[in-house]
Structures are given as C-alpha cells and as structure tokens.
Design a protein that fits this description.
Blueprint lengths: L2 H9 L7 E5 L2 E6 L2 E7 L2 E5 L5 H6 L4 E6 L2 E9 L8 H21 L4
Amino acid sequence: MSEFTDYLTDLLDDFGAVRVRRMFGGYGIYHEGFMFGLIADDVLYLKVDAENMAFFEELDLPTFTYLKNGRTMAMSYRQAPEDFLEDRLVAADWAMRSLAAAQRAKRKKPAS
C-alpha cells in the first residue's frame, strides 16, 4: 500500500483490525466490512451522518469533494482532525463514531 496506510493501520490497532483497499486513486478504510474512512491525496476522511456531524463541524473540518464532469461533488466524508493522526485513543474514538455512521447508512439502504 503506502507508508501512510501502514501508519494508519498501526495507529488504529487499539480500535481493531482495519483493512485498506485501493479505490479510485485512493484507499478505502474498512472495519468488519464497513467502509468508515477514505484516503485521497494522503488526506484521511471519515464517514459522517447527522448523528456525528457536529463533531466535525465544531472543528470546521472540510468535506471530501471530487470533480465529475466539471462539477464538484461532495460525499458524506469529512477530513479527520489533526490529533487523530497523533494519538491512538483519539483515533479510536473518531474511528468508532465514523464506523457507527457507516453502520447506520447500511441499515438505511433498502434490501436488493
């Protein structure tokens, strides 16, 4: 993978086993089959929803966006705070919130 993804999997060891998968020029971060984070251009973004959004807004963390057909598209991921990458306990706490958001999103999707 990369030095950054290796560091991230080590950092999240207290949270639990994470799996990193290449996707669209970046990486998806998974725990127990749920994608709770993504890495684009060596920046970590975490899954957000209505229940955990306030934590990200309080720190004014930017939304993950990308260009598609000349338009800026936003996804339900926001940049992780700086201290996420510096403290295992902080990382585990934020990861748990984002994992819960990913689990809630999956429950809301209709069965195929």
